[in-house]
Amino acid sequence: MSETLRRAVASGRVGHAYLFCGPRGVGKTTLARVLAMALNCPERGDDGEPCGSCDTCERIWGGQTALDVVEIDAASNRGVDDARDLRERAMYAPSEEGRYKVYIVDEAHMLTREAWNALLKILEEPPPRVLFVFATTEPQKIQQSAAPILSRCQRFDFRRIGVSDIVDRLAHVLTQESLEAPPEALRLLARRADGGMRDALSLLDQVLALTGGEITAESVRSVLGLVEEERYLALFDILRENRHGEVFRFVESLLDEGYDLVEFYHGLVDALRTALRGALDGDLPDLRADLRDAWLERVRGVLPADLVRMLALASELESSGSLRRSSNPQMLLEMLLLRLAYLDRTVSLEALLGGLGGAPPPDG
Fold this sequence. Notes:
- The chain is 57% helix and 7% strand.
- It has helices spanning 2-11, 28-40, 55-61, 80-90, 113-124, 139-145, 147-150, 163-176, 183-193, 197-211, 217-224, 229-240, 246-256, 261-281, 289-299, 304-320, 322-325, 329-342, 349-355, and strands at 17-21, 69-73, 101-106, 130-136, 154-157.
- The longest helix is centred in the last third of the chain and has 21 residues, at 261-281.
């Protein structure tokens, strides 16, 4: 994506309107700023890369006032009058020859139908050296309110950032600050960010502020309200050994210690997935050694088919969203855990025949 835009800048074949789509915090506005820097940098290289150090680049990168680069929050400037004002300003030429006027419209899906209609004409017949970048997390809303706009824009879809890439970036940021953190703590932050680099960096700042720079897996769990992995191991023992009566005491202990049940539920789904992966793959490389050994020990002898059914049953609350909306999440969680504990286990044909006193079937 960045390579495509870099080549467009280098060749002078930049479009007049781009639509950046994707989840929040994955770099849509950042890439729009880099594109604006590349178009207006006086020291730009032949390959289309901005220098990043000149006054123009620094002002654009910092989101400061720049004569030819304007960032607009469509959530608060969404009406037809705002769009008409933007259209009129776009008619003026850039401040210097060779520059581009770049309008970065964030949360573009918030614009009203009338506002889009006001912009349609200028997108159909754009002035020279004027570029629009529309960033949105919900492109389907633009499709509903202003379908003709989509055909006037070059669309780029941003994906969520992988956990390993986020971990590498967090480690780099800490190194720049002469700090460090164990990989497990960074993985917890990365998974919580759900593919958003901006959210991951915000969470890191939050943890640093509350821990004074001493980052551990335990401090991250405490700050983010995450449940310790050992609790899920204890719960798995309860479910695996059919100790149904302990379910109520287990959930009550979570409430007594102030844990959020919705957060605990999300961790439960992750724990069952961990157990299933361990049963199928025989390894859990993302976990620290003691947790990896503990999970692999527990899933030994548990059939993957049973774990698949447990994970499918647990996922029902996620798909329906009932736990988050419920006025009594404790009861829903208790019923889920009891259903998991009472879930019938798969019996192999050999074990069944052996229990009946018969011989196992011959091979082949």
